[in-house]
Specification:
five-stranded antiparallel beta sheet, six-stranded antiparallel beta sheet, 3% helix, 43% strand, 3 helices, Immunoglobulin-like, mainly beta, 41 strands
Length: 625
């Protein structure tokens, strides 16, 4: 590929919040501008081979022009591998622009819904030489982008626009509008198609609002959201949505009355059953608003952000990634991009600014298979008045930091070695999902392996790893369940690479680390650990553990210590209650039991003999339940 500008982002760190890892995983721009064409990124999707498909449009160069949907000359697709290397590119004519896309599991083909933003009514003269609108479903090969089929979804005359699309395994739904440019009135249509582009139903809606986005709810209903002009004198627009059942019938309409003016909606998501997350903006004051409400209009919270929100995607554990730029598309404005990660209550975990010093625009953000995120949009690189300057870009970035630690379980340690046996794994007794959801941990994480074949053969046990506040060790920052390997290292079960991914940490911040197991006393680091930590924190060394030898078991290997055996109920105190758990499980065979201290899958007198010397031992205060 040819590059007009080096694709290295200048990272600007805001003082009010802390940025995430400075290590960007992938950063590429694609200069395709031959023959005076400008290229603009609109959508990104991760493909089945972990590469990416970028979709956008191309337009003929015009000095100083501000490009908008009606000025596109056609659609452009760029397929890359997992490292961002360009594999193939295809241009399609007809003034179409990609609106949504997915990859079929059956044959790997890419399915793209494209809209032609034409502006001609039947029987009326052309306006600006633009042809009538139509919408189509384009299916192309994943191998080279060649066209497999092309179905016209709309071939009607009129001012038609494809505003939004959602899809599932059964097909897709599109939101279109027919706008009369002379009266400025619009009628809206929802159309449901099967996966072969056969129309199942079509309904029109005469509403006073401007509908802009749709979301498919967990109960099968559809929410179409936008804005309603409630006071034209002061241009006051409020959030508006209507809820529609699976057959296209309107269930209810809601206008949300608040003190802010919403000039448009760029995304609507459903973070939970019956809940909406609406992302709106007011370009007059360069602000955006993230509003969490239920479908009946009861607001949970609303947060204000500087800049114009362009897109958002749900993360893990109720989080969301929001993509902003500091200005709407304008000529001669060096816009930059900011990504925020927020929690389910609207609190900001971190933000990060991407700025090349040119007019950087973001259009789409997605969550990748490895729980990183990817962005696409346009770099109006070098000089806006230079032919072919606009490029499509792809950035893949991480929102986690890896924590690395090593610890040994006293029950599983091998004689004479600083390592552990793997009998539970060998006998297929380890659970595939983390085992800490019950008392006393009540951990709700979703760490799990897909099947038994995904379990590393050198796995010993599950452990629960905690990060605690550097100034107050009683304050829990984050928990993550990990696999414990035979050498004592912890492994993230979600990506099976070294260390454990933490998602709520800050770069260069320091935390105490604690490690729990279902039948050993938990241990706490004696020192804070700066994240991400490239060096493994070694809990087998007494000096690294709070309480030192008093919180550990000595071993037959000089200088090597293990976690203390016998805390069957996991509460950090070894008492008669622990013995009662052992007694209730004695004689259990070939099973995963808390009473099994030595990890052989059986509860026997051997486990009692390991428990007895540690009776009455306790963990440090912050780790006791």
């Amino acid at each position: 590929m040819n590059h007009v500008c080096k694709p290295y982002w200048l990272l600007i760190f805001l003082l009010c919040c802390t940025n995430i890892n400075a290590q960007i995983l992938l950063d590429e721009s694609y200069h395709l501008g031959n023959g005076g064409l400008e290229y603009y990124g609109r959508l990104v999707m991760q493909s089945n081979d972990n590469g990416f498909l970028l979709a956008g449009g191309h337009a003929y160069y015009s000095p100083g022009a501000i490009f908008f949907e009606g000025s596109y000359a056609g659609m452009t697709l760029v397929k890359t591998d997992a490292l961002g290397t360009q594999q193939w590119t295809q241009d399609f004519g007809g003034q179409s622009l990609a609106r949504a896309m997915y990859q079929r599991n059956s044959d790997g083909a890419f399915v793209i819904a494209a809209g032609n933003p034409g502006t001609q009514n039947c029987g009326e003269p052309q306006i600006g030489g633009i042809e009538p609108s139509n919408f189509s479903l384009l299916i192309v090969s994943e191998n080279d982008g060649s066209t497999l089929s092309h179905s016209i979804l709309e071939a009607e005359c009129g001012h038609r626009f494809l505003d939004a699309m959602v899809y599932n395994n059964d097909g897709f739904i599109i939101l279109t509008r027919a706008r009369n440019f002379f009266t400025n009135e619009s009628a809206y249509y929802l159309k449901r198609y099967d996966e072969n582009a056969n129309l199942l139903w079509s309904h029109s809606y005469d509403v006073p609002a401007t509908l802009q986005k749709i979301v498919l709810m967990a109960d099968g209903t559809i929410v179409a959201a936008g804005k309603l002009l409630v006071d034209p004198v002061v241009d006051n627009n409020q959030l508006f949505w209507m809820r529609i059942d699976e057959a296209g019938t309107v269930l209810n309409e809601i206008t949300l009355d608040d003190t802010r003016t919403h000039k448009g909606v760029h995304q609507v998501l459903s973070p939970a059953v019956g809940q909406l997350l609406v992302l709106s903006y007011n370009q007059t004051v360069n602000e955006s608003y993230v509003t969490k409400v239920d479908v009946y209009g009861n607001m949970s919270w609303q947060e204000t952000f500087s800049g114009i929100v362009q897109d958002a995607v749900a993360g893990h554990n109720g989080s969301h990634f929001l993509a902003f730029q500091n200005e709407l598309y304008q000529d001669n404005v060096n816009s930059n991009i900011t990504v925020y990660k927020i929690d389910n209550n609207g609190n900001t975990y971190w933000n990060k600014v991407y700025d090349r010093g040119y007019d950087d625009r973001v259009s789409n953000i997605i969550l990748c298979n490895d729980r990183t995120f990817a962005l696409t949009g346009t770099i109006n690189c070098c000089n806006q008045d230079t032919p072919g300057a606009a490029e499509i870009y792809l950035v893949k970035d991480a929102d986690f930091r890896r924590g690395r630690a090593r610890v040994l379980l006293g029950g599983a340690k091998l004689p004479g070695l600083a390592s552990m046996h793997t009998e539970l794994c060998e006998n297929n007794l380890l659970p595939l999902a983390q085992p800490f959801s019950g008392a006393p941990w009540y951990y709700s994480g979703n760490e799990a392996l897909e099947d038994a074949t995904a379990m590393p053969t050198n796995t010993v046990e599950w452990v629960l790893v905690e990060l605690r506040d550097a100034s107050d060790r009683s304050v829990l920052v984050e928990q993550r369940a990990a696999l414990l390997l035979d050498d004592g290292s912890i492994l993230d079960p979600n990506d099976l690479t070294d260390g454990l991914c933490f998602y709520n940490t800050q770069d260069d911040a320091e935390y105490y680390m604690a490690i729990r197991n279902r039948n050993h006393l938990p241990v706490l680091s004696a020192n804070t650990i700066a994240f991400p930590n490239d060096l493994w924190y070694d809990f087998t060394q007494a000096a690294n553990v709070e309480g030192a030898e008093e919180q550990l078991e000595d071993t037959d290997v000089a200088g090597v210590y293990t976690m203390v055996q016998g805390d069957f109920d996991g509460n950090g105190i070894i008492t008669v209650d622990d013995f009662n758990i052992y007694r209730s499980q004695i004689a259990a065979l070939h099973s995963y039991e808390q009473g099994d201290l030595d990890g052989d899958g059986n509860v026997t007198v051997t486990d009692y003999n390991r428990f007895l010397p540690n009776a009455s031992r306790i963990a440090v205060g912050p780790l006791r339940y």
